[in-house]
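Researcher: Last one for today. Full complex below.
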Amino acid sequence: MKKSLILLSLLFIGSMYACTSDKTTEVLWDSTSNISLYTRDTSSGTRAGFMAGIGFDDAAEDDSLLADQFVIKDNTGILTSMATDEYGIGYISLASLDDSVKGLNFDGVEPTIENVVNNTYGLKRPFNFVIRDLNDFANDTEKEITLAFIAFLGTTDGADIITNEGAIPLESTESWDDIKEEHDVCNLDNSGITIKFGGSDSIEKIALALTESFSPKCGNFVPEHDHTGSSDGFKRTQGSEKDGDNYKHVGFASRPFKDSENGAEGTQGQLAWDAIVAIVHLNNEVDSVSAEDLKKIYSGVYTTWDQLLN
Amino acid sequence: MKTLISNIKNLFHFNNKREALDKIVKLVFLLATIISASFIVIIIVFIAEEGIKPFITDNNGIGRVDFWKFITGTTWLEGTTFKSNLYGVGYIIVNTLYIAFLSLLIALPIGVLTALFIAKIAPKKLSETLRTIIELLAAIPSIVYGLFGSGVLLPMIYNLAKSFGVQSPGGNSVLATVFVLVLMILPTITALSEVAIRSVGKEIEQGSLALGATKTQTNFKVILTSAKSGIFSSAILGIGRALGEATAVSLVAGNSRTGPNFGVFDITSTLTSTMLQGLKETIGIDYDIRFSVGIILMIVILITNRGLNYVKRKIGNVDVK
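Model: Here's the assembly. Have a good evening.
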């Protein structure tokens, strides 16, 4: 009894050891293998941006258009999976790209921040904002502070903060000091005013950093953040919840505004780009893909890596 | 009516001070019970209210979800999200039960044998240490198990599949889910089985030894059989935990969107991981349908519990001290 137990446990430990094979000895990449697809969930803004970028808009919210077997994971999950899965392909936001995976060139353009800013890299989605209708503010002070914040987004100071947080800001030429005379409200003491921010949680980190920097510049107003999803950005500033308990002054969306989200003049705009990059394992022989390729991979037309390489 | 009034009158009729105190304490207990029981009712009512919506309302023009198609469907959603009402949860129910029972099948023998070892065979100091270790394992939060699973288990299973010649998507598979669940229900089963084994009467054990049986024979044929009721209870609690686990499972399962998945290296999904996936950014019918899945989950748990309790009663009971 004892001897067989010892033998069994030794066999078990031995098999576990054998199974964790040394990755550096595995350099043979078999291109006849099937492609393992990874994607985000249908409610993800990154997925919407990716599918729009490759010309496969319908698949943004429709799982049945994708190939048969695909794995659904979140941003970090796809990144860590691609570090192990030699035959997988997935997509993440550019800000999360690191050395553990290979980011594919899109239409021959390398996935870097410079290439997004100079508009050569095509796989990206907009970070948008929407504020309340200009006649719909509780008082003039709140309106002025909100408009000052929007102006701040377009300054070089705002751009620095956005870059710090991993997104790619739009072109800006003036700093806050250059334009602050146009916003007298910022010379007052606004510590009794609360401005509410909400909408996309992909933009939450950026929004927090922006308000943290801007609040002392504008009378120390109190920023209140409650990010619950891109759809709530328009809903809580000009939509069905704009007068309820969840009303917001500024809403964010990590996708283009839908047709149903048409706001009043001068209340919507873009603050940054978020680039998406297709990633594969470091051993993968593929270096560059086109929108056409990615669409064929994700719709199931290409099932093995050979079909892509040829 | 008369008896009701006389009952209420009796409630406030005190013979002396001590009886008054008695009645007040009884009332406090009753109040406490009502408060805690009402929470369950509140939760059930809330979930039922939200979960029934997709089946009876028009869902803002999208159309009703067909209940029969819902519980027999083999695809989670056919058509565009937020615009389609063709949800199907049938295959997920099969997957969930398959995974839960598979984990129980693996965890029960390991747990019971560990419990036997701790209770009967190990020297005192060792069993104290082991008991502490088991309690610590039980206290580890599920997200930690999930992170352990996705960080350590997935590459291992990917390599294991490769050595069998099977291409697995990054290790996300039935095997990974079952592994993580086994790790989670093992401490529960071990702790409860240990209590059950320790409470087997000394006379039964010593009687068997006196009749000439060896220690091992006694352990297996006498003690385990006497403790079977307690061991079965631990299994019921274990499977309850396995059915309800959300975070850890969603990180390693792969979230398959079609058909029941039985292959060991196939990706899979459970009722809980489906509810969790994309929860933060979803609206409308996609949000409401998760409550419906929640209702289905509660029904599955209820039926499993009732079924297992029935089997437990059939197995019978040995009088233990």
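The mean pLDDT of chain A is 85. Chain A touches chain B at residues 1, 16, 18-21, 33-34, 36-38, 41-45, 58, 61-64, 68-73, 77, 80-82, 84-85, 87-88, 201, 228-231 (CB under 8 Å).
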